[in-house]
């Protein structure tokens, strides 16, 4: 993708007064752009295709993929990745120590729980992920001396990361336009001095990408809160914010209540809005095991994804050799984008209908004893017509009946979901509708049941548990105030979207990023880049070079840290950290490898250094926590519910599960003290005449903003990322043929238009009226003002677009 020559940017005026925070939807600057085309980006036709991946002139192709997921293609791909990074031996050795219950490090690839019964619980994409971290290539001071920052702007994101691991702290030098070496001490002083020079602590914002360990997370939020702000945006503002808010309102917990055993004990599993074969491949093991013992598995997704029909169990090497396929589905429902809520409502309506003659269709005793507002829900389902349900879900009444029967026949149902459910305007309402359905048949608080959001980053759930929250509870703030003698603020801080707006309007001047690639991950890259360039200071704690380093502020620091796989030695000796998986299991992670450079510091040490430089007179013993992580675990045990005896329990072979009241049918944390039904109206998900709903998703060969290659195996794509999948009828209606160039124009909530040109259209079996393509390239189409008013999550799965043939 060519970025700069083709950008037609929004004008640089900022209208809203600093401090007046209404969120981008209330911004008079953005409102003034209504009706205008503000951004236009071209995918590079003649320069080859590839988006943010490697640029190539190799022919692209699109062919149906008929093989089972995780089969031979996966084995081949792993060996190619290892060979490319020249890591066949070290790589293989380290990989065998991943996700072991008796030591080794936690795979940074995803948050799927480790299976204690599986001796080598690894997958293709986890291996790619770790190998990427373990590359022998290095980004040195000589590299930065050779390439100016302006030159690096023209590199693709793939090429930036490919340079290799960062080796020492660097600081942006405006005069020479190069990053130049800086000592750790001077870097910490720059951070401390700049922060102390601000008029208010709220002029800084502290982002986290979900890899940060529990220990570093706790230290990070402590630093921000002692400094005086709750400006703690995180990547979860873009993935499961909706799930957290919905589950809290319904059940009084921000997390799923199911664990891996529940997955294996359920007799009906719903798998909604997740591409498991690519993004949670170890789930395939659970699905295959479940299927073998007769569990029914229902996939709900506009796309029939790779893992949907059959898999070769990722860790069963003998079966892999024999290509023995296990079925992984009983029913596939191709819901229309955003149609999940109507589908859940339809199943609920059918059960209520059945309950007239079938006393066991719904669990009256459970509803009576534990829930609130069932009667209001019953009235609502009576009032919701089948026409509306069919129209909004895109699923026929016949199919909904079929699914309702499966649900009626099951005694233990577990419902899981990921971004296909959460990244919508009505994400909160949809997750609450899922809980409504579970409650109807008492599918809470026993084995084999419950809600189970599939989390993304390997410790995104632990980040929240350990205090990364821009809307902290009063209890939490009181606790840290008591334990540390602080006066931390209680007012809500900025999340991801509002942090960007605040940087753009100049009311946030310092940005600190613990991992991640902010500028690429968030919506509206053009607006965000402009916002970041206004910063007084941009601090990036990272392992590899990425776009967020190149888009610099007046001052910018790159602070390189140890990766999860590397040995972490502090004053008291070798340290371990911990992470929490998607099912509330907390376990230790021990790095094994020699660090990529002798100048790297651990995330704990970097945070401790920055905190001390900011708060020189603080009585918080930052140094003690860094010298020995057991010390911070001891105070975490005092502050965090469920972390009692943290040091002892984290060292148990498989770690420990955090106690969760809702799992025990204790709903005392909700305002009514019961599990609450929600009664929201169904949303209108039809985008209107001529428009399509575009979802932005990951390919098989990428990890969020890290693009390994331009292939997407299970969707049959080779050598191209700048593509859009369309329904064949929608293509025909627009005179578009397979592989044609199209332009895609989005219209935001404020009526602002953004456009991508020279994208290739490919036909796919997806519902009419929908389209799909890859993040992060397509973030150009997502305006900063396009976020849900329920969760403030950007609308990454429901952009309203028009698509036209390019002549
Ligand atoms: N290898 C690899 N693993 C990863 C990641 C990665 O980039 N690479 N990212 C990690 C992160 S941070 C996260 S959050 C997760 C993301 O995991 P996923 O949620 O699988 O991520 P996406 O690729 O965005 O895929 C979204 C899925 O939802 C479906 N979908 C879209 N709209 C709808 C809808 O309206 N209804 C329903 N029912 N389905 C819909 C899409 O067709 C697609 O299958 O994966 C994590 N794991
Ligand atoms: N359009 C669209 N946009 C999306 C999404 C979508 O579905 N559609 N999904 C959203 C979601 S769910 C998420 S989670 C975000 C992802 O957003 P982020 O978490 O911000 O992005 P990542 O690509 O995961 O971050 C990659 C960078 O992390 C750094 N890194 C890697 N390992 C480590 C480590 O151990 N420590 C530190 N300090 N740094 C490390 C490397 O420098 C690397 O360049 O993107 C969001 N953006
Ligand atoms: Mo995520």
Automatic annotation (TrEMBL):
GO terms for molecular function: 4 iron, 4 sulfur cluster binding; formate dehydrogenase (NAD+) activity; molybdenum ion binding; molybdopterin cofactor binding. It comes from the Bacteria. The keyword Endoplasmic reticulum does not apply. Its cofactor is [4Fe-4S] cluster; Mo-bis(molybdopterin guanine dinucleotide). Residues 692-787 form the Molybdopterin dinucleotide-binding domain. Keywords: 4Fe-4S, Iron, Iron-sulfur, Metal-binding, Molybdenum, Oxidoreductase. PANTHER family: PROTEIN YDEP (PTHR43105:SF4), RESPIRATORY NITRATE REDUCTASE (PTHR43105). This is FdhF/YdeP family oxidoreductase.
